[in-house]
Amino acid sequence: MPSLRIVLKSLALTSLLAVAIAAPVRHEEEEDACAPHPATTTAIASSATTTAIASSITTKVVAVSTTSSAVVTPSATATATPTIPASGASPDLTNPDLTLQFVAIGRGIQNYTCTGAGSNSTALGAVATLFDATDIAYANEAMLHTLPPMIVNLPTESAGSIQTAAKLINLDILGHHFFTADGTATFELTEDAKILYAAKVMGVKAPADASKGPAGTGAVDWLQLKAKATYPSVGLGEVYRVETAGGVATPCQAAGVISVPYAAEYWFYA
């Protein structure tokens, strides 16, 4: 069952979302302090209208580019616990047997190593900032799923450019995702003093229509990861990476590291 705090915030978010959709708000993109990639920001900057989603608790706005033919309405069961989407793969990721704690949008880079030109790349891990999208997940899952394909096309030159993505949608930073020296996937939710050291237990291919990202190479797999038994995870037991956008390695041109922009939803359970 969701906490009373999440239920109340979700109800408020749903009501305000309905008002925002009924009366779309004009939004003027703020100038990025870091040099953006013009080709990837044009589609966002040229949208005819934006939908303003306001949280009554934080009074912050989530600006999501939309057109009149693609308006997403709030879910009729906004306070029901949201569920991870299906990938369409068979078999698909197994359903969680724990309780949903957070839903985050991860924005960062997937890293790969190359031994030389034309060699096969090897996954090296990822680095991402996690933005808290829990309220949106409870209010409108369809709206939530529109975020990774949009955010992956925002500037990715540095942590500051990822912050620019957060300012665009005004989601609070929940924490960070990275890999330890021994290759363990780590999710540190600093705002709630929780940490998960996880290992992959299952993966499936992203849907064929998933966003290929600015590199045009494709979307990384959807994953299910569980806490490593011998690691000191706190407050979290499982995470799913779904609705991926971008992140697949580009061809190796020389020996070294390749970094590819990606975005994804991360669903945390305990």
Features:
270 residues, alpha+beta, eight-stranded antiparallel beta barrel, globular, disordered N terminus
Q: What overall form do the CA principal axes indicate?
A: globular
> Any idea what the radius of gyration is?
18 Å
Helix content: 10-25%
Largest β-sheet summary: 8 strands, antiparallel, barrel
Number of strands: 10
Q: If strands are numbered along the chain, what order do they take across the biggest sheet?
A: 3-4-5-6-7-8-9-10
Mean pLDDT: 74
Instruction: List low-pLDDT spans.
Output: 1-77, 156-168
Please count the helical segments.
6
Structural class call reads alpha+beta
User: What's the N-to-C terminus distance?
Assistant: 12 Å
What does this 3D model show about the protein?
The protein has six helices and ten strands. By secondary structure, the chain is α+β, with helices and mostly antiparallel strands. The strands form two sheets. It has an eight-stranded antiparallel beta barrel with strand order 3-4-5-6-7-8-9-10. The longest helix is centred in the first third of the chain and has 19 residues, at 4-22. The radius of gyration is 18 Å and the shape is globular.
Secondary-structure blueprint:
Blueprint: H1 4-22, H2 38-45, E1 49-54, E2 61-66, E3 100-114, E4 122-132, H3 134-139, H4 141-145, H5 147-151, H6 159-169, E5 173-179, E6 185-189, E7 194-204, E8 222-227, E9 238-246, E10 256-269
Antiparallel strand pairs: 1-2, 3-4, 3-10, 4-5, 5-6, 6-7, 7-8, 8-9, 9-10
Can you describe this structure in just a few lines?
The protein is of the alpha+beta class and 270 residues long. The chain contains six helices and ten strands. The strands form two sheets. An eight-stranded antiparallel beta barrel has the order 3-4-5-6-7-8-9-10. It has a two-stranded antiparallel ribbon with strand order 1-2.
